[in-house]
C-alpha cells in the first residue's frame, strides 16, 4: 500500500511540474511574441523616422519643409492633429505665428489669434524639454491665464498633449511642434522620444533651408547688380557716343565758317556771318561742357548753391528769355500763369532759372511746330509749384520711371530730338534736390503731352535782404605788358592776338621753362599761364615767380580743370585768378581793365 501511495504522489508531482513547465513556456512564448512585436514596431518606427528624415532633408523650400515635418510627425505619433508654430519676437514681446497645420483645416485656428506664452506653451517656445500630458485638462499648468482659463470655445478637442521645441545646434529656438488627441493617454515615452528626434531633424533642415534661401537671395541680388552694371555700361556707351556726336556737330560749321572768313572772295557780310557762326557754336560747346561739369559736381556732392531771397517772377522771366529762341524756332505759343502777388524763394536764382529754361527747351524740342506750352506758377500749402506743360510727343509708361536717370534717353525722344546729351533732366533733378525740393514728371502716354512739376519750399526765415552789388567798375582801356604761356600753340597765339587787338603788349611761350625765361627778360605786369604745360607746370611757374619775390605781378591760371579743388590749388600756388577753358574774352578784358 505504501509503495502504491508513493507512486501516485510521484505521478501527481510530475503532472504539476509539467503543467508549470507548460505555463512557463507559454509565458516565454508570449513574452517572445511581445518582444518580437516591439522589435518589429521599433524597426518600423526607425524606418519611418529615417524615411521622414530623408523627406525632410530633401526639402529646401521653408514653407514646404515645415508642412512636411508637421504631416510626418502627426502620422508617426498617431495624433489626431499637429501644428508647427513659428517663434518670433515683436515690439510687444514674444509672439507665435501659426505656420503649418495637419489633421485639421487652417481655419480651425485662425479665429483664435496667436498662442500666448501660457504656462503650457512657454516652456516649448523657450526651448526647454518636451511637454507631455496624458490629459492636459487635468494638468496643474492648464487654465492659469485669463480670459479663457483654458481652451477657448470652438477650439479643437485636446486631451492628450505633446509638444517639443525645434531648436538649432546654436541654441536658436525656431518654434515648436504641438500634437493633440481628443482621447487621454495617447502619447507615451516612446512617442515623446520620437517627436524629439523629429524636432532635431527639423531644426537641421530649417538651418539648411535658411542657408539655401540666403544663398538664393545673394545670387538673385548679384544677378540684379550685374544686370544693372551691364545696363549702366550700355547707357554709358550710348552717352559717350552721343557726347562725341554733340561735340563733333559744332566743329563742322566752325571749320566751314573759318574757311569762309579766310576766303579772298568773301564779302564783309559773309565774314561777319561766319564770325557769328563760330561764336554761336563755341558757346554751344561750352554749354555742353558746363552741363557735364555740373552733373559731375552734383554726383560727387561738391556743387554749392548761392542762395538768397529771390523773386519767382524774375527767375521765370530769365528762364523764358533763355529758352525763347528754341520756342520761337518752332513757332510755339507760350502762356504764363503766375500768382498775382509776389512770391519769394530762398534759392539760387541762376540755378533755378537753369532748371526752368531746360524744362522749357525740352518742351519746345519735343513738341511739333505751333504747339502749346504753358508755364504755371502757384503756391500750394508751403510749397511753390512750377509746372511746365506741353502737348508734345509725351512719354510712354515704360519710359517714365527712367526719365531722370543718367545716361538714359527714351528711344522715341531720341528719334525726335535735335541734339543734347540726355543729362539735362538728371542735372535738373539734382539742382532741385539741392534746394530741398523735388522734380516730377507726368504723362498720359505717347501722343498726350508731358508735364514737369518743380516743388520748392517758400520759407525764407532768417534771410536778410541781400546787399545791392556794387556797380561794376568801368573798364579802363589801359595797355599792359602780358605774358601768355600755353603748350597749345593755336590757343596761345589766338589769345595773344585778341589781347594785342585790345592794345596790350604780349609775349608768348609754349612751355613752363620758356615762360620763366620770358618773364625774367620782359617782367610783364600780367602772366596768363596754362596749367598742363610740359617741363614746368603752370603751378610750378607761379610758385617760382612768387618765390623770387614778384608779388606785384597779376597771375591768371587758365585750365580745362574747373573744380573747386583745382581753384583752391591754383590759389595755393600763388595765382590771383582762375579761368576755365574756353576763356570768355569779355570777362578777361574786364579783369585786365579793372
Overview of this protein structure:
The protein has 594 residues and is an alpha/beta fold. Helix 2 runs antiparallel to helix 5, helix 7 crosses helix 11 and helix 13 packs parallel to helix 14. About 4% of the residues have low confidence. A 5-stranded antiparallel sheet has the order 2-1-5-4-3. It folds into 5 domains: 55 residues; 153 residues, Beta-Lactamase, CATH 3.30.450; 50 residues; 149 residues, Histidine kinase-like ATPase, C-terminal domain (Heat Shock Protein 90); 113 residues, Response regulator (Rossmann fold, 3-Layer(aba) Sandwich). It contains 16 helices and 17 strands.
Concise overview:
With 594 residues, the protein is of the alpha/beta class. The protein is 49% helix and 18% strand.
Number of domains: 5
* Gyration radius, in Å: 45 Å
Largest sheet: 5 strands, antiparallel
CATH class of the largest domain: Alpha Beta
Gross geometry: elongated
Q: Ends: how far apart? A: 165 Å
CATH architecture of the largest domain: 2-Layer Sandwich
Structure classification:
alpha/beta
* Count of DSSP strands: 17
Average pLDDT confidence is 80
Count the helices. How many?
A: 16
The CATH H-level homologous superfamily of the largest domain: GAF domain
Keyword list:
alpha/beta; Beta-Lactamase; 5 domains; five-stranded antiparallel beta sheet; five-stranded mixed beta sheet
Task: Walk me through the topology.
Blueprint: H1 2-57, H2 62-77, E1 81-90, E2 93-102, H3 107-110, H4 122-126, E3 131-133, E4 160-167, E5 173-181, H5 189-248, H6 251-262, H7 268-300, E6 308-311, H8 312-329, E7 333-337, E8 344-347, H9 349-365, E9 372-380, E10 383-390, H10 411-416, H11 424-434, E11 438-442, E12 450-457, E13 481-485, H12 489-501, E14 505-509, H13 512-522, E15 526-530, H14 538-547, E16 554-559, H15 564-573, E17 577-580, H16 585-593
Parallel strand pairs: 7-9, 13-14, 13-15, 15-16, 16-17
Antiparallel strand pairs: 1-2, 1-5, 3-4, 4-5, 6-8, 9-10, 10-12, 11-12
Helix pairs in contact: 1-2, 1-5, 2-5, 6-7, 7-11, 8-9, 9-11, 13-14
